[in-house]
Amino acid sequence: MALVRRGFASANAGDWESFFRDAAPNSEYDLSRGRAGEGVYRGEEAQRVFLDFVESWQSVRTEPHEFIEVGEHVIVPTTEHYVGRDGIEVQARNTWTFTIRDGMVVRTCLYQDKKEALEAVRLEE
Question: The whole model's pTM is what?
């Protein structure tokens, strides 16, 4: 769980080198359950998709509400705070799951809510 906490702190500081340090080389970034229905990305492509999104905003900050351990998964409901290039502020509530194996994040998945994330993780167990 410390690894996931550290990841949020690195992201909120804009320290992307530290943020990606704990990701496995072919880590999966699954956005398929998001409102936009984006895809599933791996490795360098996942990092590029993530950074392209973050860099499209003037600022991005994620507020984790809790860290729930379920086996090899950490579930984190969040409120994300975005400021657009024109100064408009936007908030989004999501839940992220992180799958950790051998001390590295091997999968990050976006869910619309905590209940959906908990159900998905329990089905994998």
Answer: 0.90
pLDDT, tens digit (0-9, with 9 covering 90-100), for 47-59? 999 899 899 999 9
Residue corresponding to tokens 């091997």: 106
86 and 74 Cβ atoms separated by less than 8 Å: no
Tally the domains of the chain.
1
Q: What is the model's pLDDT at position 125?
A: 55
Bridge partners of residue 42, in order along the sequence: 28
CA angle 97, 65, 19 (to 5 degrees): 55
CATH of the domain at 6: 3.10.450.50
Rounded distance between C-alpha atoms, residue 52 and residue 31, angstroms: 14
